[in-house]
Design brief:
Layout: H1 5-15, H2 19-32, H3 36-47, H4 51-56, H5 60-77, H6 84-99, H7 104-125, H8 130-173, E1 178-181, E2 184-190, H9 195-212, E3 216-223, H10 229-244, E4 248-252, H11 256-265, E5 273-275, H12 278-288
Parallel strand pairs: 2-3, 3-4, 4-5
Antiparallel strand pairs: 1-2
Helix pairs in contact: 2-8, 3-5, 3-7, 6-8, 7-8, 9-10
Amino acid sequence: MTISIEEWEQRKAFVGFGETEAQLLSELKELVVDHTDEIIDKLYANWSDFKELRELLKGQDTIQRLKSTQKDYFNRLLSGEYGQSYLEDRIRVGIRHQRIGLDVRWYMGAFCNYIDAVTPHIFRLLASDPEKAQKTILALYKLINLDEEVAITSYIDAREDVIAKQHEEILELSTPVVQLWEGVVAAPIIGTLDSHRTQLFMERLLESIVETRSPVALVDITGVSAIDTATAQHLIDTINAVKLLGAEVIITGVSPSIAQTLVHLGIDLSGIYTRSSLADGLKQALEMLNKSVSH
């Protein structure tokens, strides 16, 4: 759950929303029950004035689903019960709006529309008791403010989940491992290696070596424009992990500038095969496997 029930109760306490406010809204529901359709129709009429929202509200079925959903929301808003079930429902609403691509500005503005639509009814229905009308409106403001907080939190969390998944997918695409020859796998590196990417790269390389039973792995760094101590150490760690599986590593694509940098950093590459190109690395790998390529 995006927001725990404990945090929800704390938020309610912070804005001063308690049993008294819940009771006022529950009593309001009894007063406006006959005006629910009128309120929902007013909301829809306001939203349909805007082209961007009209695009999302095309089709009679969509309109009817929207009105039904809004009626459910309105009934929950005045239910008088604002515990875990209410919280979970509000979280689902925020996630749903993120998934359908509704811009957050429309979503947040809709809360203001609710206040505008309901407030006149409160003044009219409680005209004989102005103090209660004022307290009821304040209770509604508090609850809608709480709903806004939950909505925006769950909306942002849902969006960050999507971004995180996309990031993972990009990382997987950026760390491919392919079998070049029987007994030889190749793993090109493009860009820099941070801790997270190194872990993913290492896992994919080791899994590929085991699956293909390859005794030689080519790690091509042609796409690495610069290298620092951390990146070099990540590379050494990967090589050591491969050796633990009984396989050999050949680093290919070592440019003169990277070679100088490695020397300057004092990185010990003794015992590690290096070649200037992937083709040279493959040739070395085949020699290690006692294989030759005929032209």
